[in-house]
Design goal:
- The protein is built from four helices and no strands.
- The protein is an all-alpha fold.
- Helix 3 (83-116) runs antiparallel to helix 4 (125-153).
């Protein structure tokens, strides 16, 4: 009899294969968006989109492989990792998902300011957002990095 909370081999395989397929498709889409955005890095919108796509690629890569680097356990059929590889995967998953979320928020703010500005108003969205764009980039990379480091250092990243 299996543990009450564990998945059967078929359920686990479906989960891992489904996650691998969606992560791979996300990587392909983000690579395409990154290539397009890289050609026009002159606008704030393109820079936010470029960085959002880069962080999404990183996050998707670790989502693709994180089931394999978990510590060996009867509940994780294909896991070949240990506690350190689990912490490493958790670090990058925390960093990637938080960075993607923050860049999505900043892109939403860009669209908000784009809607609020009209040709009659003096300030355009590039003027408003350009003022705090570098703060947005720094906070989207340093804050998730700091949270991920703090979680890893305090041993808050584990399988449970």
């Amino acid at each position: 009899m299996e543990d009450e909370g564990s998945l059967s081999m078929g359920q686990y395989a479906s989960l891992v294969i489904g996650m691998a397929i969606t992560s791979f498709l996300s990587i392909l889409g983000s690579v395409a968006v990154t290539r397009i955005a890289y050609l026009k890095l002159t606008s704030t919108y393109q820079r936010f989109l470029f960085m959002l796509s880069l962080t999404n690629i990183l996050n998707s890569i670790f989502l693709l492989f994180h089931q394999l680097v978990l510590p060996e356990s009867p509940n994780f059929y294909w896991a070949v990792g240990n506690a350190k590889s689990c912490s490493m995967a958790g670090f990058f998953l925390h960093f990637g998902s938080l960075s993607v979320a923050m860049y999505s928020c900043y892109l939403s703010a860009y669209f908000y300011f784009s809607i609020q500005s009209s040709p009659k108003r003096q300030k355009q969205p590039e003027d408003i957002i350009g003022f705090w764009e570098w703060c947005a980039h720094l906070s989207s990379l340093l804050l998730p990095g700091g949270i991920a480091v703090a979680a890893a250092v305090t041993s808050n990243i584990n399988v449970d």
